[in-house]
Write a structure and sequence with these properties.
single chain; alpha/beta; Rossmann fold; 7-stranded mixed beta sheet; 12% strand; SAM-dependent_MTases_sf
Length: 323
């Protein structure tokens, strides 16, 4: 899938990806790590703190901290600059990655099982830049906000409750015309609530570009207080929410990503408009993205993420209708 970067950072991002970033054990791509490094090294001004929401083994943390260390132009705010939030507990879905030889080569012979605390591993991996990093283990909803926020990286928005609560808690601390927000999982088939909320408040954010599945925005202006009283997203109809997902899909110039984003409408349609309407929506997507689906299924191309996502969602909906 073609790699698109943030246009206004393009002259920085053309640089060769730093080998340390490339080799750091992470589920992030080298380009995504380079994006965070560049934001901290070239864009960050010291006016606010950096929020690192969703750490895993610290790929985002390391990238931001290394960039900050290379940023010699700024005076840093009081205390630690980067605030990293995670439960730091091994989830079953991560065990396979933790057992990869490339990961073990970096973390050492550490036997981590489901539920184990892996904060010590992350601290060891990022110790070179520990002077910049404050770790907040536990529920991000219980954690304190450090102060005004200049960069926010989100990989922690795994359900609608967290998404709404993080928005209410952190967005009031964004700096108008300054704060850069990176949504790690935006242009893909999951987490529809992230796209719906961001697009609902689109007038308050400027879309800067994309890198992999990540979307990058700048906070333009303060939201009205009513945006934080109750959850306006919960009051939207399924048709309104699907329209906002279409709005998100329109932001990417990569057809494969457009297809993935549109697939995130299907569970909403299935649940609230019925299975037959979901089948019609799938058929419409299949017609418009016929070439992308065919290309993903070509012999020798392997089973791409796009093809797996398409097959999983399409087969589930059609099986439910046939039952």
């Amino acid at each position: 899938m073609k790699q698109i970067v943030v246009p206004e950072l393009d002259h920085f991002l053309r640089e060769k990806v730093d080998k340390e970033l490339q080799n750091y054990p992470s589920l992030m791509s080298a380009n995504e790590k380079m994006l965070l490094y560049t934001l901290a090294a070239k864009v960050y001004t010291g006016e606010g703190y950096i929020v690192d929401g969703g750490v895993y083994l610290g790929g985002s943390t390391f990238s931001l901290a290394k960039g900050l260390a290379d940023n010699i132009r700024v005076k840093l705010p009081d205390g630690k600059t980067i605030h990293s939030y995670d439960r730091f507990q091994v989830q079953e879905s991560l065990i396979k990655h933790l057992q990869r030889s490339s990961t073990l080569a970096k973390i050492g012979d550490v036997a981590l099982e489901k539920g184990d605390d892996f904060l010590p591993v992350v601290q060891e991996l990022t110790k070179e830049y520990s002077e910049y990093i404050e770790f907040h283990p536990g529920d991000i909803l219980d954690a304190e906000v450090p102060g005004p926020i200049e960069i926010a990286y989100w990989h922690v928005l795994k359900n609608a409750e967290i998404d709404a609560s993080v928005f209410d808690k952190f967005v009031p601390h964004f700096i108008s015309g300054k704060t850069i927000i990176v949504f790690q999982e935006y242009f893909f088939e999951g987490l529809p609530f992230v796209k719906i909320r961001q697009e609902y408040f689109a007038d308050y954010f400027e879309f800067l570009g994309e890198s992999g599945a990540a979307a990058v925005f700048r906070f333009k202006k303060a939201l009205p207080k009513r945006a934080f009283s109750g959850d306006p997203i919960a009051k939207l109809s399924s048709y309104e929410r699907c329209a906002l997902i279409d709005q998100a899909a329109a932001r990417t110039v990569v057809p494969d990503r457009k297809l993935l984003v549109e697939l995130s409408k299907i569970p909403i349609i299935t649940k609230e408009q019925g299975q037959r309407e979901a089948v019609r929506a799938l058929e419409d997507i299949e017609t418009r993205y016929h070439r992308q689906i065919l290309d993903a299924a070509l012999p020798g191309s392997g089973e791409s993420h796009l093809l797996r996502a398409w097959r999983k969602i399409a087969q589930k909906v059609r099986a439910e209708v046939a039952a």
